[in-house]
Amino acid sequence: MRWWDIEPVLELEHELFPEDAWSAGMFWSELAHARGPGATRRYLVAEEAGRLVGYAGLAAAGDLADVQTIAAARDQWGTGLGARLLTELLRAATAFECAEVLLEVRVDNVRAQKLYARFGFEPIGFRRGYYQPGNVDALVMRRVSDPAAPADPVDPDPALSDSAHSVPLQGETTHG
Ligand SMILES: CC(C)(COP(=O)(O)OP(=O)(O)OC[C@H]1O[C@@H](n2cnc3c(N)ncnc32)[C@H](O)[C@@H]1OP(=O)(O)O)[C@@H](O)C(=O)NCCC(=O)NCCS
Questions:
Q1: Does ligand 1 come within 6 angstroms of the Cβ of 71?
Q2: Which end of the chain, C or N, has fewer beta carbons within 10 A?
Q3: Domains identified in the chain and CATH numbers
Q4: pLDDT in tens, 71-127
Q5: What pTM, to 2 d.p., does this model score?
C-alpha cells in the first residue's frame, strides 16, 4: 500500500467498517512506519483489473506482531482473497522475526474468525467493549509460530529468538 492507495482504501473501509472506519490520517501514520530499514509495518493491497479489491496491514513490536486490518471487497468474499492477504501478513511477521501474531476480531464476525482459525489462530480472551461506539466485544486470537519449523537462516540458533518479551501495541482499535 502506498499513499495513493489511501483514497480507494478509505472507500472500502467505510463500506466494510461503517461503525469504526479508520481515517485517512490513521493510514498515513501507519504507512509512515512501513518503509526504510527501521520499518515496523507491512501494508499491502490487492488489485484486480486496476481496481483495489482488498488490503491488509501488520505491525511488529519486538517478537510480537499484530494484524492491524484485513479486508476484501464484498464481491470478492469466498474467493480466497482473505486467505491470500493473511498469508502475506504471516510471511511479513516471519520476516520481522515475530514469534507470535495477535489479532482482535468482533465477537459477531464469525466469517473472519473461521478464516483465522484455519490459519492456526486460537482464541485467548476477550476485550470487553473494544469496538465503540457500538460497545461490541473483541475476541483476541493468537498464532504462535511452529517451534518445529526450521530455524530462520538469518538466525540459526533458535534459543536466541526465544525471548518472551511482548510489547503491547498502543493506539487505535484494530480491524483484524
Ligand atoms: C474477513 C474477510 C477478509 C474474509 O475474506 P474472504 O476473501 O471472504 O476470505 P476467504 O475467501 O479466504 O475465506 C472465506 C471463505 O471462503 C471460502 N473459500 C476460500 N477460498 C475459496 C475458493 N477458492 N472458492 C470458494 N470458496 C472459497 C473459505 O472456505 C471460507 O469459508 P469458510 O470460512 O466457511 O470455510 C472478508 O470477509 C472481509 O473483508 N470482511 C469484512 C472486513 C472484516 O470483517 N475484516 C476482518 C476484521 S477482524
A1: yes
A2: N
A3: 3-161 (3.40.630.30)
A4: 999 999 999 999 999 999 999 999 999 999 999 999 999 999 999 999 999 999 999
A5: 0.85
